[in-house]
Design goal:
The complex is a heterodimer of chains A (about 70) and B (about 600). Chain A is an all-alpha fold. Chain A has a domain at about 1-40. Chain A is built from two helices and one strand, in the order H-E-H. Chain B has three domains: about 1-135 and about 335-350, 2-Layer Sandwich (Nucleotidyltransferase, domain 5); about 140-330, Nucleotidyltransferase, domain 5 (2-Layer Sandwich); about 370-575, Alpha-Beta Complex (DHBP synthase). Chain B has 22 helices and 21 strands. In chain B, the strands form four sheets. In chain B, strands 13-21-20-14-15-19-16-18-17 form a nine-stranded mixed β-sheet, with helices on both faces. In chain B, strands 3-2-1-4-5 form a five-stranded mixed β-sheet. In chain B, strands 8-7-6-11-12 form a five-stranded mixed β-sheet, sandwiched between helices. In chain B, helix 16 (about 390-400) crosses helix 20. The longest helix of chain B has 29 residues, at about 270-295. The relative contact order of chain B is 0.14. The model of chain B has no long low-confidence stretch (mean pLDDT about 95). Classes of the chains: A mainly alpha (about 70), B alpha/beta (about 600). At the A-B interface, helix 1 and strand 1 of A face helix 3, helix 4, strand 5, strand 7 and strand 8 of B.
Chain lengths: ~70, ~600
């Protein structure tokens, strides 16, 4: 009986979620992105290095490290 | 000590259980849920692992997730910054997925398994790959190379494994990725990403490497094999739907192949493209391995990550580089990340001594004679049982010689994407019609795709050209493509690919005695120690797990006979057991899913 209602709410939620995320993209992401594009190149798009290998940065060698998600 | 490794929420959700350094049980969730490449939380696979050992989750010392979710999330955000404003759609789609599920991996695991926080650990994605390969290898010391689409930031690493430690030295980072480069060409040639890469590899021998120069206009390969991609040709870092740009098509000279064509044409241009990207991939992998061997001094090399499933490249490594021995975990992709995470915690973190090498992939469920007989009897399926093993193998080899195609279901199912003689469809490799029959009437898949040979290990070198001195570990897991001996090609017509190669599986009496004995019986009658082996599933279906699934797949295809253990079922008994779930999934991942 409630299935069509739940289906509608799910679709509605998805649409609202996408609208909200579009808003976040243009309001919150945009200012950071505009500055970042000027000074940052984490993706190495601009650079053309002799090697794209770099030092391994992760430190994850103890139980304490391993409990972190980052 | 029990350590449970998990991988999920990307593709191929999996669970793997390591006991005192030995991988004792492992399985992909798709085998149980019957949804191909099921990325969901592997509840059923976990339950299987625990049941196999007769333990509960309380007996597990640690649970390890195969990557660090927050680092991947950071990569998505920074990628969105740098590709603003083109990245709107991919940002929106990936954030939805992350908000709904991926950010809450920790709480999801804690809630589902009811374990304390202190027992939950997180490995780095590429360390999971490296650990899967090195810690299951026979090497005390080895160079380790990982290569896949993308982990958190990392797309490739180089390092060294010694004893219970792995030291990763270097990494290559997103978006520069051998795996994603190959996937871009998979999409360009009209196949689904994270699904059609095998098809591209199978199509390559029909072409010539005419477009290597065009591909190299879009990338730069370093002396160490490192890859830099000119991102104006690629779109997977900002697009939710496509992995390459119009500029890519301009360089390649033709528009992308229509995906609707699927296997319906073998246009020479796209075959040439397939061969060209295969050659470029091989060049990269060979340079990487050679560099790694030279810089580390280790001649034993462990490979891991999805690119390590490129068995054509693997087959060339020993001859083309300074490596002497290669080891690749049977589940080299993200499914194997579950095993790698568990191995990593066991050895690298907890310093538990290593166990003997993993020399087989038979780590899944198995069904006893009593269970098989109960299934057949309950469902009123006529069968013939052979109490004597020798008589049974004799029957099977006679069937194959008579041109029959059989479903072979015996022992524990295989860990990884390959069927290795536990859940296999088998046929006579010397019968010229078999390739077409099995492709068209049984697997319902692309006519150009080759079949693999299972060869008795003791006869492998007589029939295949294997590198001198190489113990050929990857061949145990069907991860080597090598030439068939030229004088044997006319005897192995069903498994010899158009370029004279075969993706062999070496069969050992000590790890799969039943399969070995059956092929030996075939060998004694025909002089050929090889059978055709392909996975026991239809196109789009996960490999069968239970006798009921095996019976239904047998019934849905034109297989002639089914061997469930020592029970033989013939085609006149075919029918569908309705209560057994059956689902086909042909689509791969969307681009947004591929990178997030």
């Amino acid at each position: 009986m409630f299935q069509p209602v739940f289906a509608f709410l799910e679709r509605f939620g998805n649409v609202v979620g996408r609208l909200a995320l579009s808003l976040v993209y243009f309001v919150a992401v945009a200012p950071v992105a505009l500055v970042y594009k000027l000074f940052g190149d984490a993706l190495m798009i601009k650079a053309k290095p002799a090697t794209s290998y770099r030092e391994w940065e992760s430190v994850n060698d103890t139980l304490e490290d391993a409990r972190r998600q980052d | 000590m029990y350590v449970l490794g998990l991988s999920f929420y990307y593709h191929d959700g999996s669970a793997a259980l390591v006991k005192d350094g030995t991988l004792v049980a492992a399985g992909e969730e798709e085998r149980f849920t019957r949804r191909k490449h099921d990325p969901g939380f592997p509840a059923k696979a976990i339950q299987f692992c625990l049941d196999h050992e007769g333990i509960t989750i309380d007996d597990v010392d640690y649970v390890v997730f195969y990557e660090k979710p927050f680092i991947k999330f950071e990569r998505l955000l920074i990628t969105a910054f740098q590709t603003f404003p083109k990245s709107l759609r991919v940002f929106r789609e990936s954030m939805l997925a992350w908000m709904q599920k991926k950010l809450w991996v920790k709480s999801h695991i804690l809630e589902a398994l009811k374990i304390p926080k202190s027992k939950l650990l997180f490995a780095d994605h590429h360390m999971s790959h490296a650990a899967a390969s090195f810690f299951s290898s026979p090497f005390e010391e080895a160079a380790v190379l990982t290569l896949d689409g993308a982990g958190e930031w990392t797309t490739s690493t180089m390092g060294v494994g010694r004893g219970t430690k792995i030291e990763i030295q270097k990494e290559m980072r997103f978006p520069h990725s051998v795996g994603l480069l190959y996937s871009a060409f998979t999409a360009y040639c009209g196949f689904e990403v994270n699904e059609g890469e095998y098809k591209l590899m199978g199509m390559a021998p029909y072409g010539e490497p005419k477009y290597v120069d065009r591909i190299k206009k879009m990338i730069k390969i370093g002396e160490d094999g490192s890859l830099w991609q000119d991102m104006k040709y690629f779109a997977y870092h900002w697009s939710a739907t496509t992995s390459f740009t119009p500029a890519f098509e301009e360089v390649m000279g033709q528009p992308a192949r229509d995906p609707a064509l699927d296997d319906k044409s073998l246009d020479p241009f796209y075959c040439d493209v397939a061969m060209s990207i295969q050659k470029v991939t091989e060049e990269i992998v060979i340079k990487m391995v050679d560099h790694l061997v030279k810089t580390t001094g280790c001649k034993n090399v462990c490979l891991a990550g999805g690119v390590a499933l490129n068995s054509v490249a693997n087959g060339k490594l020993v001859d083309a580089t300074g490596a002497e021995q290669i080891y690749i975990h049977p589940a080299a992709g993200d499914d194997g990340g579950a095993a790698g995470a568990a191995y990593w915690a066991t050895h690298h973190i907890l310093d538990v001594p290593r166990a003997p090498a993993l020399d087989h992939a038979y780590l899944g469920t198995e069904y006893s004679d009593a269970q098989i007989e109960e299934f057949l009897s309950t469902n009123h399926i006529a069968f013939q049982k052979y109490d004597d093993d020798a008589e049974f193998y004799d029957r099977v080899s006679d069937d194959l010689i008579a041109g029959k195609v059989g479903g072979w279901f015996r022992g524990r199912f295989e860990w990884g994407p390959r069927a290795l003689g536990s859940r296999s469809i088998i046929a006579d490799a010397s019968n010229a019609e078999m390739k077409e029959i099995v492709n068209a009437k049984i697997k319902f898949r692309e006519a150009f795709r080759p079949f693999a040979p299972s060869v008795l290990q003791e006869h492998a070198r007589e029939w295949f050209v294997l590198p001198e001195g190489d113990e050929c570990w990857p061949a145990r897991f069907m991860l080597y493509v090598v030439p068939v001996q030229p004088d044997k090609r006319d005897k192995l017509v069903a498994i010899t690919h158009v370029d004279g190669s075969g993706r062999l599986q070496t069969v050992y009496a000590d790890t799969n005695p039943g399969y070995h004995a059956m092929i030996s019986s075939f060998h004694s009658k025909t002089g050929i120690p090889v059978v055709l082996n392909t996975s026991f599933n239809l196109k789009g279906e996960p490999i069968v797990e239970t006798p009921a699934q095996a019976f239904n797949t047998f019934s849905r295809s034109e297989m002639d006979v089914l061997y469930l253990g020592n029970y033989v079922v013939t085609a006149d008994a075919k029918k569908i057991i309705d209560s057994t779930p059956f689902m086909l999934r042909h689509e791969g991942d969307r681009v947004a899913e591929m990178v997030s």
